[in-house]
Amino acid sequence: MRRSLRFQHCATTGRFRRLDARAVRATDSGPALPRSQRGFSLLEMIAVVVLIAIAVTVASISFSKSLGSAKIKAASRDLVAALRYTRGQAIVKGEQKTLDVDLDAMSYTVPGKDPVKFPDKIEVKLLTAQNELINDRAGRIRFYPDGSSTGGHISVIAGAREWRVNVGWLTGEVDLEELSER
C-alpha cells in the first residue's frame, strides 16, 4: 500500500516541512486547524440563537408586567393628587368642592379642570356616601371648607393588583393603600 506524503512550505524559513497524516483534513484541502482555532458549527449557532430568543421572551414578559404595575400605581397617585387638590381648593376658597367619578367614561373630574381618563385595561370601583351618588355608575366625593369630606374610597384594579385611595370623612385625609390580592 502506497502512502502519500504531504509537505507544506514555511514562509519564514523557506523550507518545506513534512505534515503528519493525522493533521490532514478529510477533504484534502490542507492541514486541519486545532479545535481552539476552528469556527462554530451550525448546530451550535442555532442553539445560541434559540437561547437568546428565550431570554428576550422572558425579559419582555417581565417588562410588560412591571410596566402594567407602574401604570396602575401612577393612575392611583394621580387620583390621590387630584383629591388632595380638591380638598385644598375647598379650604382655600371657603366653599364646598367635589371630585366627580364617572365609571362609564372611566374618568374623574377636578373642579375647574378637564376630565382625566383612567388608563385602558383598568377597573375602577367607587364607594361614597349615598347622597353623593349621581347614578349607579357615577358619584362624587365632597370636601367642605373645614377640610372634612363625605368620605369613601376609590379602588383602581388591574389584574391581581389593586390600589385603594381612601378619603377620611372626619379629616378629609387622602391616602393610598396597596392591596396585594383582591
**Overall shape:** rod-shaped
Low-pLDDT runs: none
Structural class by helix and strand composition: alpha+beta
Distance between the amino and carboxyl termini:
85 Å
On the 0 to 100 scale, the average pLDDT is 85
What is the CATH architecture assignment of the domain at 71-179?
3-Layer(bab) Sandwich
Subcellular location: Cell inner membrane
Family: Belongs to the GSP H family.
Protein name: Type II secretion system protein H
InterPro entries: N_methyl_site, Pilin-like, T2SS_GspH
List the helices and strands and how they pair.
Blueprint: E1 7-9, E2 16-18, H1 42-93, E3 97-102, E4 107-109, E5 116-117, E6 123-128, E7 133-135, E8 138-143, E9 152-158, E10 161-167, E11 174-179
Antiparallel strand pairs: 1-2, 3-4, 3-8, 4-5, 6-9, 7-8, 9-10, 10-11
What does this structure look like?
With 182 residues, the chain is an alpha+beta fold. It has a domain at 71-179: 3-Layer(bab) Sandwich (minor pseudopilin epsh fold), CATH 3.55.40.10. Helices cover 29% and strands 29% of the residues. It is built from one helix and eleven strands. The strands form three sheets. Strands 5-4-3-8-7 form a five-stranded antiparallel β-sheet. A four-stranded antiparallel β-sheet has the order 6-9-10-11, with helices on one face. It has a two-stranded antiparallel ribbon with strand order 1-2. β3 (97-102) and β4 form a beta hairpin. It starts with 6 loop residues before the first strand and ends with a strand. The model has no long low-confidence stretch (mean pLDDT 85).
